[in-house]
Amino acid sequence: MLAVSHLTKRYSSALANADISFVVQPGEVSVLLGPNGAGKSTAVKCIVGLLRFEGEITVCGHPNKSLEAKRVLGYVPEMPALYELLTVEEHLEFIARAYELKDWKPWAQTLMDRFELTDKKDKLGSELSKGMQQKVSICAALLPVPKVILFDEPMVGLDPHAIKELKKLFLELKQGGCSVIISTHMLDSVDELWDSAHIMMGGRIAASRTREEIERQNENLEDLFFQITEGGSK
Ligand SMILES: Nc1ncnc2c1ncn2[C@@H]1O[C@H](COP(=O)(O)OP(=O)(O)OP(=O)(O)O)[C@@H](O)[C@H]1O
């Protein structure tokens, strides 16, 4: 479970996150929506422990910067950051060693197969296209089988096969009890996947809805998104 409580992040001049609170239960897919500059990536970076912030964030009950939290937390950044001199396979081995994983090779092979990386396994990070780097980044985040995982604009740069595979994986993670958080401004990419949605605007959560609420109130997430981002908050 992920619990974000009163998250506030200020860069020198801008208030990027203002008093954000939300919870993502095990087996829930939650999307952070919002236009460019709404504060999504900042929130994600605070959650995964890359930025200092005010407020409280816990991952499965542990403070987000603790080792216990890091062991169960996965992160796929907006821009993949691979090691130039490690091959695809070595990236996965590096993660396996860092997390002290046992019997990881079959899962690593499955991930490489699913993301069509097996024939690229000996290529260096510096030799990979942007999309291939993104696929390695996804495989690396999934290898330790996290309990909470955050994807920042995960579909950008992926080919249709990888998008299809990733969507299947989101559902598998959900079925396996993982808390999944996807930050995006591409509403249609997550349309059939989400259980809860938080629409961010100007660093705040302007509206939160569960799928059940949207269906019960006969709302449409896309309409709500444009209502908020082109008009006032709701
Ligand atoms: N390193 C930084 N230093 C100063 N201001 C920053 C920094 N990073 C982001 N900001 C500001 O914080 C605000 C939120 O940015 P953020 O990247 O979190 O938005 P976003 O919703 O992820 O946008 P996008 O969809 O374009 O990725 C913006 O006003 C941005 O200019």
Automatic annotation (TrEMBL):
Keywords: ATP-binding, Nucleotide-binding, Transport. CDD domains: ABC_DR_subfamily_A (cd03230). Residues 2-227 form the ABC transporter domain. It holds the Pfam family ABC_tran. InterPro entries: AAA+_ATPase, ABC_transporter-like_ATP-bd, ABC_transporter-like_CS, ABC_Transporter_VariousFunc, P-loop_NTPase. Coiled coil: none annotated. GO terms for molecular function: ATP binding; ATP hydrolysis activity. This is ABC transporter ATP-binding protein. It comes from Solibaculum mannosilyticum. The lineage of its organism: Bacteria, Bacillati, Bacillota, Clostridia, Eubacteriales.
